[in-house]
Amino acid sequence: MSLHGCQEDSTITALLSSPRSLLACERQGYTPEQLLYRGEEEFHDAQAGREVSFLRFEHAELGRRRRLREVLNEYDMVCREDMRDGDDVRHQGLPSSLIQLSARSYEKEFEILKMKLREQIADVIREDLKKELERSSQHHHPRPSSPANDKSKGPAAGEGKSAKFKPPPLVRKQSENAARMQREREEQQKRNIQIKEERRLAALERKKHELQEENERKRTEFQLRLSSAQDALRDHQMKQEMMLDEKMKKNEVQRKKFEEERREEMEKRKHILQIRQDRVQQAISELDSREEVKISKLKQKEEEAGKRLQALRQNRGASSEQRRREAEYKEQRRQEILMRAEYDKEARKQHLIERQLQDEIQIQHQKEKKERERRLHVELERQRKQERMEAIERYRRMEEYKRKQQAERIDEETRAIQQRKSDMKRLHEFILAEKREREHLKKLMVDSVRHFAVTRVWSVPEEVSSEIDYNEIKSAIQEEFWSQRTGSHALRDQESRDVLKPAPPSTAPGHARQVFVTQEAEGSWSRGDTRDRLDHHPRLVDPREAQGRYLPPAPAPPLVQQQKQRPKSAHVSSTRVVLSNSGHPLNGIAPLAPHPDHREIEEGREREIRSFRQPAKKLRKKKRIKNGFAQTPLLPAPIMHVVESLRKIQNLELTRMIQLEEEQEKRREKMYEMAEDEDRTELKRIFEKERRRGAQEIMKMTAAHEEHLANLLTQHVR
């Protein structure tokens, strides 16, 4: 059952079963039983009275409504957090995406290298065709046949040409020396790689040992912090108990003082009542004395009247009847006076008695009112004490939940860090393996092109033969060369120079710019002009290197576009050049004779091939790139992407910790407002410690992130 699904007056014991509702109760420090509704009849107490029972019911209901409102607000916050966070699978696809990105970047670099090598092979074939054309024009040889005619002649013509143009022994010896030096370099590279791998493993072992020490140190620090927090909570509870004892003592002193004052007041009221009773008795006695005086005066007057009557009877001799009537009248008058006096006396006595009863009733009402006020005061004091105890218990439960959440968060962070380290290690190993494989293939391709530049024989392993189709390049160059020739000798001399004009920049969005730095070639090669030949050779500056980032691949040069447009038939793919054990080609195409200055040519080709792998900074120093387009990025694209992704994850973790600290600060403000004045000083001190601890945790997390990035970059540099 959830908080929003329960009834207002529900009294079921198992009230809540929703995880979010239970989590909201734990965050606020309440139990589900404290949200139950209790009727007024549960608080009925015959001895305490109806007012005290209703006061207890009202206090319990107001507290329950306040707790329910706080828990509902916390429940809404939990729902919003779940909606904002979503599932906990945000970073599971990070290593695979990085691996795909690194593979794509290596593919782009490899495509650029293949384009450059194809251009170099095309230049070598073009130079050979120019020289062959010059020799044929000097000796008045007929025009060479087209590539289609060469293919139609079959393998017999190829065997004749290969027998006619055999490579000299010096070239074979140089090729053997070059192969032997290449094998030595490969062995040295393998030894260097093994040494680097051993150093890397030693560094990983040291790092693992440091991480274990760091984890042990953090574990001890966490235990110390936990023990200090428990001691502080224990001291706080002892102080709260001492404060409660002092308050109880003060209340006892106040109660005794109140009893003494009430006793003195009762004695004073008794004294006043006694005085009043004495006064009433005195008044009654005075009235009695006055009545006696009046009766005596009446008797005296009666006697005097009797005497006067007797005297009148004697003196006047009135008739007996008249005298009798007068006597009866007087007697009646006397009786009336006596009855009126007696009635007045009884009325005064009754008035005094009623007045005394009213005073006693008023005194009794005052006693009952004081007793009722005393009970209400005791009940209010009990409720305040109960509220303080509930606040302390709630604070204890909230602190316990906070410590449990911190421990769970530390465990989750530890597991996430270990998982991230394992992912980064796996990604690093994959990148190194991919890089070694690509470097090996690049080295094979570059060595094959270097061997072709020296010996004019295309001999490659199977890996390179599947990447570069020599026959296709050669046929495309021959078709392009013979289609552009005209009949005049001057025009043939003019077209023998290899000129590459810069292509106009594309204005369409998404197209990358290509910058060609070209100059007109100097014709033939001789001693001393190798550097000029290399400087005049066409260079292709990749705009992705110029901008320091990777863009979509630029449109290929016309030669490569022709190669892509031409369909690859089974005949062409099956006629790739493969040398036999004797060094002769088997596809029917005879190699050209080596140039006399082959040493200078070989050195120039090696410098030219190395220039493809030079960073843009060195090219700028040699003034081979203009307008400052070439810039070298600080790190390769895969490592930059790893750093950026790691930064994003670290920023998410830091933002989550800051949000948690803000929520804790709001909770502290609420508790500070709810606390009493005498408890606020202690709460303020505890909250200051928590704030300092939170700031230290944020600083530690930031330092750990920076250290992790520094270690990653250090491993990349090594």
Automatic annotation (TrEMBL):
Basic and acidic residues biased stretches: 181-198, 242-268, 291-307, 321-333, 490-500, 528-547
UniProt region (Disordered), positions on chain: 133-198, 242-276, 291-333, 487-575
Protein name (record): Uncharacterized protein
PANTHER family xrefs: KDA ANTIGEN P200, PUTATIVE-RELATED, N-ACETYLTRANSFERASE DOMAIN-CONTAINING PROTEIN
Coiled-coil positions: 363-390
Classification of source organism: Eukaryota, Cryptophyceae, Pyrenomonadales, Geminigeraceae, Guillardia
Record keywords, A-Z: Coiled coil
Keyword Aminoacyl-tRNA synthetase: no
Keyword Coiled coil in record: yes
